[in-house]
């Protein structure tokens, strides 16, 4: 995984970069720490819970995001941002993206 400081924390930061090949049906989920922070649990435990929630099939991307927020184990007042990108098949064998 690429490393770097928080977005917006420095004027001219350096960030690692990585490439990820995605196929139709794949979903990339990005989130802030407010989704997984708990006072009584390690971040690793919260991340395992999140992975379990995301692994369950959903009717569509909106349903996946709604369920993820509903089942979030966070218990802090920290803001949460959740973004997902789903790769769709355009019907011609090419990938199309939905954000």
From TrEMBL:
Q: Which GO terms describe its molecular function?
A: phosphatase activity
> Which InterPro entries does the entry link to?
Bact_Sigma-Reg, PPM-type-like_dom_sf, PPM-type_phosphatase-like_dom
Q: Does the keyword Hydrolase apply?
A: yes
Q: Name one Pfam family in it.
A: SpoIIE
What residue ranges carry the coiled-coil annotation?
A: none
UniProtKB keywords: Hydrolase
Q: Which residues form the PPM-type phosphatase domain?
A: 2-87
Record has Hydrolase as a keyword: yes
The name this protein goes by in its record: Putative serine/threonine protein phosphatase
Species for this entry: Kitasatospora cheerisanensis KCTC 2395
Taxonomy, top ranks, is: Bacteria, Bacillati, Actinomycetota, Actinomycetes, Kitasatosporales
């Amino acid at each position: 995984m690429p490393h770097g400081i928080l977005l917006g924390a420095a004027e001219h930061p350096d960030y690692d970069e990585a490439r990820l090949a995605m196929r139709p049906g794949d979903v990339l989920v990005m989130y802030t720490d407010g989704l997984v922070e708990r006072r009584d649990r390690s971040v690793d435990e919260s991340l395992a819970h999140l992975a379990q929630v995301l692994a369950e099939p959903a009717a569509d991307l909106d349903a996946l995001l709604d369920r993820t927020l509903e089942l979030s184990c966070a218990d802090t007042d920290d803001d949460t941002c959740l973004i997902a990108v789903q790769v769709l098949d355009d019907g011609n064998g090419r990938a199309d993206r939905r954000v």
